[in-house]
Structure of Sterol desaturase family protein:
Amino acid sequence: MEFLNTLFDEAIRFLGVRHIFEILQSGNYSSLLTYDGLRAAIGPLIPFLLILEIIRAAIFKRFKASEYKVVFLLYIFNRFASRFISIAAVAFCIGLFEKYAIVKTSFTWYWFIYGYIIWEFSHFIYHYFGHKVRAFWCLHSTHHALEHMNLSVTYAHFILEAPYADVIRTSICIIMGVNPPLLFLIMFIDGTWGAFIHIGENILKDGRLGFLNKIILTPSHHRVHHARNPLYMDTNFCNLLNIWDKVFKTYQDEKTEIKPEYGITREMNSHNFLDVYFGEIVCLAKDVYRAPGLKNKLLYIIMPPGWSHTGDHKTAKLTKQHYIKEVEQQKRQPMSDPALQPLTELSA
């Protein structure tokens, strides 16, 4: 009976309906107008869409259990491990840096806009380093290792990534004067949107969302971010506002003729929990062990994925440069050769 109760509690926690039940039982619907009430109302949205996504895939015979198996194991493992690892990164950073804030903000619409721009900057910084520093990539790669895109991917994370992300994002926001209540609201909105942009084609075939594709980062942009196509690698690091991707020239629209290929570039088994969760850590450990000298060992930890002490680098930046150079060379070739046509079309 205790096992069944635990299972029920975990299901309720996953669905995010506990607070809704409490509101229905109390009859105090005015609480929906509060921050906690808003979270309670929106919390079940992503789990509901995920279940709908699975049902729709099953109806149209596109359901693949292998796409959800590893994510399920990741979710269970993280829930179990989190019982023993409790890191209050956000509270710690607020207490540490709030007294050093360069400005004082209040809970108003104009400071909300300011706060959201700062939040996106902090998210960009965390996310950029997650791709450009190999030690951080070991934490972030779990989220990219799956070779499909649907709402279940939002639950695929290495357990230590959240504290690392929160330390960077919270520290920057607090130092820049985003007060805690405003920060928590922004984190909630951004977290909800950050989950939604993983929605798969079973629910949303075209992730561009019409005119919104020109204003914000849509599921289409995030599909690009998760792709391993050379043109798409290491792009669209922001979550909702695309301002910092455009500032730092990492913005990339999805091209109709280049379908995203999901996953990471190293050879791996995306259906193996251990490879998805620990594979990059094992690869880094092997490289560090084999590297000659302390300097090279350290460089493997802090340089981008694909860096090699031999000079045979296979970083995302070089891969993209080689791809663009090849496309440009093909564009200069005579169009009479039919074999060159497909590559030329991709560069249009």
Remarks:
- The chain is about 60% helix and 0% strand.
- Residues 109-132 form the longest helix (24 residues).
- Residues 227 and 260 are 5 Å apart (CA to CA).
- The two ends are 62 Å apart (CA to CA).
